[in-house]
Amino acid sequence: MARALTTRFRLISLIPEHSQLNQVSAASNAYSSASRTTLCYSCLLSQCKPILAPKKALKNDLFFYSNQTLSQGETANASKKSTPEPEEGALLAKQFADNLKRHTDFSKIDAFEAESPPRITELTAEDKKIFAIRPAPQPSFNLAAYVNQSETLQKFLQMGINISKWDRKGKLPDLIVRLDFERDVKPRLIFLKEVAGVDDETFPKFISINPWIFKESLEDLQVRLNYLEAKQFSKEEIAIIVSKAPFWLSMSTQKVDERIGWYQHEFNLTGKDVRYIIVKLPKLVTWDMDQIKKLRFDMKEFMAFSDTQLKRILKFTPKLFISDGNKIIKTFNYLFDEMKINQEAIANYPAILRFRPLLLRQRHLYLKHLKRDQFDPTKENFISLKMMAVPNDRAFCEEVVKTSIDDYHKFLKTI
Question: By the 8 A CB rule, do 295 and 328 touch?
């Protein structure tokens, strides 16, 4: 019993007097309302002396302990007496506001606002260098992703060059993105135009086909032109060769000389014949030589053309040797086996070997249907191989067979 009274006495002694309790409650309310408008300044300025209000939970904690010992009547009286008087609360709030105003140095606030960085209106040269720094380009599957960062690619597009052809050509895109237009591109373009004779209209096609020209030195390019001059090609012929065969200047003079020598030896050509054939089709030198050698072997061994006939075919239709060899064999077999045309007649008009086998068969069957399949030049109603190879069906029907195109189309439905 004595121990319970002692505990009760200690707890009751913690309760402040009525006047102190009223002051604490009023000060807490005044600080809460004032801090909502001046808290930012009091946090920024170190000279501000904030008035610390008691915890909001103090009142609840006080009655929590008192409820364990006080009676219900005493608890109600304490709760009733804790309400401050209106006059005292207003006085404390006014004192708190005056205190805050007296201890706040507003000159420091103005100084803080004045120290904010000024707005940038003009960039210095150093600033421009910093802003010019860009992140490294990310890996991409096409050159279009680097156009905005590459002046060289932009110049190529302005020239009308198709850079999309370079995307899947091995390590070529790596070479292109490292080119400097003034250092690597411009000198070679000037060389091609002023020395090699390439005209402006040919530039886009030339560069689109052979962008590797930019890794060749100007000395090597000049040596390769000197070789053509030594072989007695005129300047006009050199311009034709370089324009029609863009890879010519990317080949060493040794390789070019070996290939020209092969043509001269295998087809029994004179120097004049060589110049005539090369100017007519410069790609004969830059084309895949294995394909050309295989086709010549097939024409000599399997098609049984003589050396004289092969020379004539090369001079008349050099493009035949860079065509699809399988189609040429099929066309020859139909001409020789079905139409009964010999090698001499074919050698007189070798372009027929580049004609499509299916189209040749359709026209031959139509002539046979009309009983006009006469290919002997010594007989009447002779149909030459040139007539068989006219560009379109309408010209074949109206000019060669003298029938309507509708009749020809009706016949095609029957085969």
Answer: yes
Cα distances from 8 to residues 14, 15, 165, 382, in angstroms, run 10, 11, 98, 140
Q: How many CB atoms lie within 10 A of CB 196?
A: 22
Which amino acid, residue 316?
Answer: F
Residue linked to tokens 């004539």: 312
Q: Model pTM?
A: 0.64
pLDDT tens profile 236-265: 999 999 999 999 999 999 999 999 999 999
Q: Other CB atoms closer than 10 Å to residue 109's CB: what's the count? A: 14
Q: Which residues of the chain have pLDDT under 50?
A: 1-84, 110-118, 120, 131, 136
What is residue 86's three-state secondary structure?
helix
Own/partner contacts of 90-94, CB < 8 Å, gap of 24 or more, are: 92/23, 92/26, 92/27, 92/30, 93/26, 93/29, 93/30, 93/33, 93/34
Running DSSP on this structure, what letter comes out for residue 146? G
